[in-house]
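call fold(seq) -> tokens
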Amino acid sequence: MNKHASSLKGVYTLFKPQDRSGPILPILFDSPHSGQGFPDDFNFTCDKQNLLRLTDLYIDELFESVTQNGCTFLKAEFPRTYIDLNRSHEDIDLTLLNDIWPYPISSKGRAKHGVGLIFRLGHDSAPIYKDKLSSQEIQHRINNFYTPYYQVLMRELDTLHTLHKEILHINCHSFPSKQGYRSLPDFVLGDRCGTTCDPHIINHIKEVIETYGYSVNINHPYQGAQIIQSTGAPTHNRHSLQIEVNRKLYMNEKTLEKNINFNKLKDNIKGITKDIKPLFFTNSLAAD
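ret:
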């Protein structure tokens, strides 16, 4: 591991800005769904490819260069189908349990569709497990994977906020290019309809991405979920937004292999993050 990285084995890796990247900027990127390290107790019975299709493959590779531009980067090492960091810890699927869940349960989540905190269904609604899980198994995943990720994310954001007084958090994801008859853009930025990020910032980022020739939507069809809801507080100068990248830009969605445009997109993302200057941070010590 390079000297700018720290990790909790199998859970996350945190990359700090490189020495020659200039000042540490008040910007943190994270990739919670790109992990491909399958824990030993992930006793799935479906095909592994089925699970990989629900992972944001290569998003960590596309965004890891942000550290060269003075930004911090955090990525999860485990797959979202093991436990989904972008769900509430109360989004529990009771039909997956073989005993009683002793903690609060939300009725507003995605568990009823089989894709709650712990996925019951994989790609094309294929069952992931042969047997049901115990509440103890689920609590183990929360305590040892979900909670540590949020702890390091919040710690790093708090550190940057203390230093700069105003921060930007960008939560990185991907989406499939084929979704019925909808016409989908290249990128989607989400801020939960203006509740997690100042409009000036998200519009600025949209304009930067468009200068590279990409199409960009805001809050359609993705608005962001649990992570930016937990981190974004624009009235306290804590701005969080979700960025979704269309998979057709960088991979073959059938074979799951990188396509010939992968390196071009990676270079463009590096350029985009360099162009997202912290000029909109009124109090930032890193502003040029």
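The chain has one domain: 5-80+128-280.
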